[in-house]
Each structure stands twice: as structure tokens, then as C-alpha cells.
Amino acid sequence: MSKAPVRPAASVENFERLQGDPLFEDLAELIAEVLSYAFDAPAAVEIEQWTISCLPSTNRSADRHRLFTLNIGPMEVLSVECHLVGGQPIEHVMSVFVSSSALESRTGCSIEELAAKHDLLGIRRTALASADGDGTMIDCSLEDSDALEQFAELPVDASTVRPLAEHLVAKGKGPFRQYHNPGFAKYVLERSVDHG
Question: What's the pTM value of the predicted model, to 2 decimals?
Fold first, then answer.
């Protein structure tokens, strides 16, 4: 019986292509950071509780493509989309998901108030069913220093990522194993070890 073909998002070729992105090292660090917020030992639960795809076809068009998607359980929790002009990258937009209730508790503000105060970010509750009403998505341009300053003011850390991650893990595995890129995961996990 022949093995199923490797999905492009799980392939060595896509991982090698992603390494050509000017922000590749920053992306690897970002993923390692989010994994450390979500899990005590990310390497021990790879595939079982989280997966990462490389250059998935999600929402791809001539002027934008997704560089990666980090899923915990059945839901994406982190992705970066690259916006292009003439085939050249001009902007990278990060989308990260946190627990709405934890974010509101940490800041003392509603999600709507946070969105108004942080006008350079996209902050909105997600309708994704897996979050059961307790997920908020935060979008931030990685090239916009003012937006990054606003993002740094928010408690996107273990206190807001972990509650959502635990909720998602309890829902069971998502259907993403076939898209999991082991080479990219290994690279990211090596960064996690570096962080101690």
C-alpha cells in the first residue's frame, strides 16, 4: 500500500521556501513564544495538541498569502499573512488568538474598549465555534512600529493564551495532522529550548 502524498503545507519544499522570507527568524521566535505561553512542554504534545503548517493555501491570492498557521486542538491560534506588491513582500500581518475573558480580566477593559484604545490593531471577538465565545483575535502589522507598541501594551502572554489553549486541547485533536510540517516544528522547538 503506497503512502499518501505529502501535503504541500507539510513538505520540506514549503519549509525551504518559507526560510526565504525576510522575517523568517522573527516568525520562528514568535511561534516559539506563543507555544511557550500555551504549553509547559510544547515538544511533548506536538501533533497531539498542536500542529503547524507551512505556506498553507488558506485565503491565498495574487497579492497575499499566509506564511504559516499554528493550530491548537481544532482551532488556529496564530498565523502571519504576507501582503505583496509586484510579487514582493511589503507587509506581514500577525493574527493571534487569546481568551477574551482572561484579556478583559487582565486589562479591566471590555474587548470593545480595548479595540477603541488600540486603534492601530484589529481587536475583535472571534465567531469560531471552537472558542465557544471566549476567543479574541488581535491583528498587528509587523512592519508598523506604532502598531507593535500598541500590541506590546496588551498582555498577550501565558495569562491570556493558556486559558484558550487549555479550552481547545480539551476539545480534542483538530483535522490538521496531514498539514503539519515536522521540519518547521523542529526548527521552532529548537528556539523554545533556547528560551530556556
Answer: 0.94
Each domain of the chain, given as residue ranges in start order, spans 8-194
What is the rounded distance in angstroms from the CA atom of residue 155 to the CA atom of residue 174? 27
* Non-local CB neighbours of 41 within 8 Å, separated by 6+ positions: none
Q: Which helix (H) or strand (E) holds 74?
A: none
Which three-class secondary structure state does DSSP give residue 122?
strand
C-alpha closest to that of 154 among 170, 137, 168, 171:
137
Helices (H) and strands (E) counted in the chain, each on its own, are 7, 6
Q: How far does Cα 137 stand from its chain's mean position?
A: 10
| pLDDT by position in tens, the chain (length 196) | 456 678 999 999 999 999 999 999 999 999 999 999 999 999 999 999 999 999 998 778 888 999 999 999 999 999 999 999 888 889 999 999 999 999 999 999 999 999 999 999 999 999 999 999 999 999 999 999 999 999 999 999 999 999 999 999 999 888 899 999 999 999 999 987 554 4
Residue 79 backbone phi and psi in degrees, to 5: -150, 160
By the 8 A CB rule, do 164 and 135 touch?
A: yes
Q: Tell me how far apart the alpha carbons of residues 110 and 96 are, in angstroms, rounded to a whole number.
A: 18
CA 93 to chain centre: 11
